[in-house]
Structure formats: C-alpha cells, structure tokens
UniProtKB/TrEMBL annotation:
Origin species: Streptomyces galbus
One Pfam family it belongs to: RlaP
PANTHER family membership: NUCLEOTIDYLTRANSFERASE (PTHR34817)
Protein name: Nucleotidyltransferase
C-alpha cells in the first residue's frame, strides 16, 4: 500500500503497550492528507487504507479528527505515543499532538473506553462458552488483556486528562489474561469496578470537546495540500 502525504505515523498495539511477546504482530497507525483538490470531485478519495504484512491503518486527516472527537481509544493513541515509537512525524503532525487535549471530553471518553472494554468482555465470554478450539485460548487471553488495559487507560484519561500508553505491569496483564481465559467470570468484577469508578469520579476533562483547534488545524492541512491550477494559455 502506497499512501502519500502521511503526516503522522507510529507503532501502536501490543508493542506500544509493552505487552508484545515473540511472534506478536507489529501494528502501525497513522493519518494522511488527501490532496485538497480530490475532495471537490464527483468521487471522494478513500478515507482509510488498511494493509497487512505490514499491519498498518492510515486514516485521512478529517476522518481521524472525527474519530478522535468521538473519544475513539484506538485513534487517540497516535497523539500520545512515546517519541521513540513515531516513524513519521511532520510539522503538521506535531501541531496535532500539540492540540490533543482539545479532542477530549468527559462523557465521550467514558463511553468510548467503557464501551470498548465491554465489547472485549463479551468476546471473552463468547469465546469461552464451551470447549476452546485449538489456538483460541491465546485470543481469549488477549481480549482479557485489552479489557483491563482499556479500563485502566480510560480511567486515567478521564480522571487526569493524561494518557499513558505503556501499561504499568505487563507480566501482571498477561497473568490476568490467562486467568480470565480460564474463567471468564473473573473479569467481570474488574469491569464493574471501573464502571463504578467512572461514575463516582469527577473528571478533569470538559463536558464537550473544543472543536475549534481541530477545525483550524484541518484548514491548515487543506491549504498545505492544495495545488493551485496552472493558468491556461490563451
């Protein structure tokens, strides 16, 4: 997959969380700018490009902003990565990192992170309902690890306004994942505890995101990638 105008890209997923082990995939996430002229034609360009080998997802700048404003945990990782995990970092990408707090709001962060964690719990229970097919246990443990991570990261972001990508104790996350794979019910108290914590904690985040910085940034992106038409000769 060849995508031009990549503004920001880095390594996310298990490598970024500190949960990768031998054989783990290396996941990459980024955003790009479509040529501004292409946005005005009859057919709009693709807003996302997903590839495997390598595993990479790239979102167009406007789509990334919309997802981030909605509190999407996956896209939000991109602007909170440790410096060493960025593989493409442009001035416009740095500007986006600089306004990352403006995308956040208490309700959307709470709903998005708890929603994703609940999805992982449902997958965990579904995969564990009955005998596990060969090779399934590892995926089941992965759901449990993601459930725990989403709860911890989401609550930190909700409470403090800061997001730490790397988990505190990777070995503990792996152990809890294996335990939950063996007994899925063990993960439910964790989910319920964080539901209560969100409900009882005053957030450092505003009630609504501030869309103005994102709008201004996106307009700078459109200006930067606008190719003025060549004047016709009479």
């Amino acid at each position: 997959m060849s995508v031009t105008n990549v503004l920001l890209s880095g390594i996310v997923g298990s490598t970024a969380y500190g949960l990768a082990r031998a054989g783990s995939d290396v996941d990459r996430l980024g955003l790009f700018a479509a040529p501004t002229e292409d946005l005005h034609g009859l057919h709009r360009p693709a807003e996302s490009h997903v590839s495997t080998a390598p595993d990479r997802t790239l979102h167009e700048a406007a789509k990334w902003c919309r997802l981030a404003l909605g509190g999407n945990p996956t896209v939000m990782e991109l602007v909170w990565l440790p410096d060493e995990l960025y593989e493409v970092r442009t001035p416009l990408g740095d500007e986006l990192i600089g306004i990352r707090a403006s995308f956040l709001s208490a309700g959307r962060v709470r709903d998005a992170y708890l929603g994703y964690a609940t999805q992982q719990f449902r997958k965990l229970v579904s995969r564990s309902a009955g005998p596990l097919p060969p090779g399934t246990r590892g995926r089941t443990a992965k759901h449990a690890r993601h459930l725990r991570r989403l709860c911890v990261q989401g609550f930190e972001l909700y409470r403090t306004g800061q997001l730490t990508i790397r988990v505190d104790d990777p070995d503990a996350s792996h152990r809890s994942g294996e335990q939950a794979a063996a007994a899925p019910g063990a993960a439910e108290p964790l989910l319920r505890r964080f539901e209560t914590a969100f409900a009882e904690t005053r957030s450092a985040l505003p009630d609504h995101p501030d869309e103005a910085p994102a709008e201004a940034w996106l307009r700078r992106v459109r200006h930067a990638f606008y190719a003025a038409p060549v004047a016709s000769r009479g």
